[in-house]
């Protein structure tokens, strides 16, 4: 009897509830596809790996940006491996962004999200990269800062912080330098 109840609950009712909640999301739980000018397709709502210094970097991913299986590292803040990973990412960030102080690096630039696929970074995470990108693309820092400000997304349903979709930001940056 317990098996029948579990099958009904976990195979029917629970998936229906999750599907119903997804229908209230702005994208109705579907992948949002962007086609850029060169004909390439990207998923707007799945984190992308941007590691070239001429682009805004994404948040690190615990699943190597593989959308087939999302997840975090499941390592606590006192785990030595986790601390080494954060230290390594911090050192790398500082190497690629000279002049940025360790305390000025937003946590989202050196720690993965719970899903490992977050397509957004904080405004601070984008602004701390402006100087590097402006220099490499021979652009005025104010112009790059304006692109960042123009791509700030409001909180969903008024909840949570403002954020920036890294893919959209980098596509806008490419469009600017293509002209």
Describe the structure.
The protein is mostly helical. The chain has 2 domains: 1-30; 31-178, no CATH class. Helix content is 41%, strand content 7%. It contains 6 helices and 5 strands, in the order H-E-E-H-E-H-H-H-E-E-H. The protein has helices at 2-22, 80-96, 123-127, 130-136, 141-150, 166-178; strands at residues 33-35, 41-43, 120-121, 152-153, 163-165. The chain has a 3-stranded antiparallel β-sheet with strand order 3-5-4. A two-stranded antiparallel ribbon has the order 1-2. Helix 4 (130-136) packs across helix 5 (141-150). The termini are far apart.
Topology overview:
Elements: H1 2-22, E1 33-35, E2 41-43, H2 80-96, E3 120-121, H3 123-127, H4 130-136, H5 141-150, E4 152-153, E5 163-165, H6 166-178
Antiparallel strand pairs: 1-2, 3-5, 4-5
Q: Which characteristics define this entry?
A:
6 helices, two-stranded antiparallel sheet, 5 strands, mainly alpha, 41% helix, 2 domains, 179 residues
Mean pLDDT: 90
Computed CA radius of gyration, to the nearest angstrom: 19 Å
H and E order: HEEHEHHHEEH
| Main beta sheet strand tally, sense and closure | 3 strands, antiparallel
Give the N-to-C terminal Cα separation: 67 Å
Helix content: 40-55%
Concise structural overview:
The chain has 179 residues and is mainly alpha-helical. The protein has helices at 2-22, 80-96, 123-127, 130-136, 141-150, 166-178, and strands at residues 33-35, 41-43, 120-121, 152-153, 163-165. The strands form two sheets. A three-stranded antiparallel sheet has the order 3-5-4.
